[in-house]
Amino acid sequence: MDSVMMWPPRLWKVTPLLTNMEEEVGSPKDNQQLTYFSAPAVIDKDSIVLSVEVINKVQMVVKENDWIELVSEVKDIRKKISITTVKIAVTGDSGNGMSSFINALRLIGHEEEDSAPTGVVRTTQKPALYFSSEFPNVELWDLPGTGVTSQSMENYLEEMGFDKYDLIIIIASEQFSSNHVNLAKAMQRMKKRFYVVWTKLDRDLSSSPLSEPQLLQNIQKNILENLQKEEVKEPPIFLVSSIKTLAHDFPKLRDTLKEDIFGISNDDFLGTLFSICDETINEKVEGIKGYIDADTLCSRYEILDPDNLEECEKVFQKIFGVDDKSLHQVAQTMGQPDAFYMDAKQSQVIQMYPQDGSTLSWLYHSGSQFLFIRLDSVYCCFNSNYYRHKQQKCVLGKVAEETKKILRKILKDSIFLPEVLSPALYPTSTPS
């Protein structure tokens, strides 16, 4: 998906609260903190994955606690994401073997018609696009090396347009130069996911007097030391041979790449869904707090004993759709046992807020601090309505956090778990 990108002129903010769906956002420079490592705050208005209609639908089903419909909606989104293009750039110093690496990654020979041209002289003069059947919906961009022009690194970064790529692979061989370090620093500054790949390992092994384990350790140590000097956090590092594509770190590189491609495609939209759900739940919390403050909670939700915190908890769980019956249905939908989602519930309200009539005991357990010197504080502490409302809000907050936790699990599982024919869509029985 999108990391640090050249944003279109009109964007939609997702957080906070998604109340203004067509709010102007600043320049591309203002958005350079948005990456797929954290929950995104911006969605392109032309997105086919998370359109305004989809966002509104997600908000609606969360408000209505319709988890089965939420699962269905997320699975529809996942199908659209599966065709989303991920852009990967391969860069490094000229002569480091970027084109050879791309051919090796694509499992094709240099002599094949659509292979990246290689040679001892500079062969890539401008960014070249390649595809691989092993990585569907992925664009592999072979960039000219940093030695192609005499321009500064900043000019090179701007000229190559690194902002439009989702993942960067920095290729090095023979030495880990200052250019490699500067590229890594730039990627970290831009909050880009990047790898360091040391190629031509076969040549190193054939010419070095060191044993293979010692040589590999020395190369890894040299790369890390150079990065640490410039305070670059350790990235994934792979030592490979573009000739022996099944040896050394190449299999590990492929597996990591596949995982990250999947993550790039899903993390942004998943983080956005988290934001939508959290804000919708927060809205519900504020609405219920209004009933608590007005002392109408019991009449609104038919609570028989307002001092019974266990009863309040069960009512709140039903309001938020995380009662046993609702979780049973969503577990069936996901093809999982009931405990799969019920384990996320922490039924400890009675232990946290003992109903022994002791205000001081409750204050101790809740961690609240009051000033007993002031008369109004003393009044608040021993006023039964205030005490009850405070307890109810604590239970409400706990249930709301439980709900967010369960929703995150439902959303993640809707993406990662295999499709099942859900009996919950046609329930025959549910727990009382």
TrEMBL record:
InterPro entries: G_IRG_dom, Immunity-related_GTPase-like, IRG, P-loop_NTPase. The keyword Nucleotide-binding applies. Pfam families: IIGP. Keywords: GTP-binding, Hydrolase, Nucleotide-binding. Residues 84-260 form the IRG-type G domain. PROSITE patterns: G_IRG. It comes from the Eukaryota. Belongs to the TRAFAC class dynamin-like GTPase superfamily. IRG family. This is Immunity-related GTPase family M protein 1 isoform X2. It comes from Mesocricetus auratus.
